[in-house]
């Protein structure tokens, strides 16, 4: 391909690092690549994400793609709305980074070592609900801003700890600051955390083919499909915070031959009379070809257990 491929990116350190890996992989195939920075409302506003809406980081990039200002866009997959976008193809899902959440605490502390009353910063309802469910007496402080801003609240002494995605810290070269990588038994990550989504215009089949053949990782695609299917089914049924983690695992079939299956764990909050909140959890295993069904099945199980409900079984969309 002789034309220059323009890749749209947000200007944050994390976005530039993520787009940089995609640009490098494309350059290695001999393609000529140019980065174009696009400012999104999510970069300008400092309001909590739940109030400014899903897609706050992604819509402006998609507008630039459809307008032809850029040819390729790179998102943190977990920031993408679950509904597909007309005219845009998910051309590649590159190999995922470690999807787990990470703690950055003062004095090298782990979660279990933080004394009751410790101030832990996060802007994520999913992280908040799971931290509270641990019953450690932590005080959750809502925060926003880029990764450096959040980390700075620990080094300045304003907070005892913050929780961030391990992948983001590693990508910007700050994995050294992590004091504990949280076990998914305690803290299930956001669906698609640690994965990237690389999009192009559906009509641009040459670029789509180049992206897929250069960057796509089937194992990541399957895992993320299961997690996002769970999220989409729960979004339709309740507005509770959701965590999910799918892993492709080796298993034995009926004849004893080794096959790959998907293991999916999910969590969603249930609210009970009097305001008590609990995190419901469920897990299931399926054939690798059944990722989407697996997500839906697990979502149905969480809804049956009372995900999002205001008083025991029974549902609400609030
Ligand atoms: N919501 C912001 C966001 N989007 C993607 C990442 C990190 C990278 C990733 O999860 O892929 C982050 C920061 C964070 O959650 O700590």
TrEMBL record:
Keyword list, A-Z: Porphyrin biosynthesis, Transferase
Residue intervals of the Porphobilinogen deaminase N-terminal domain: 5-207
A Pfam match: Porphobil_deam
Family: Belongs to the HMBS family.
HAMAP family: Porphobil_deam
One Gene Ontology MF term: hydroxymethylbilane synthase activity
GO BP term (any one): protoporphyrinogen IX biosynthetic process
Residues bearing PTM S-(dipyrrolylmethanemethyl)cysteine: 238
Source domain of life: Bacteria
Cofactor: dipyrromethane
Cofactor note: Binds 1 dipyrromethane group covalently.
Stated role: Tetrapolymerization of the monopyrrole PBG into the hydroxymethylbilane pre-uroporphyrinogen in several discrete steps.
Protein's UniProt name: Porphobilinogen deaminase
Subunit: Monomer.
Miscellaneous field: The porphobilinogen subunits are added to the dipyrromethane group.
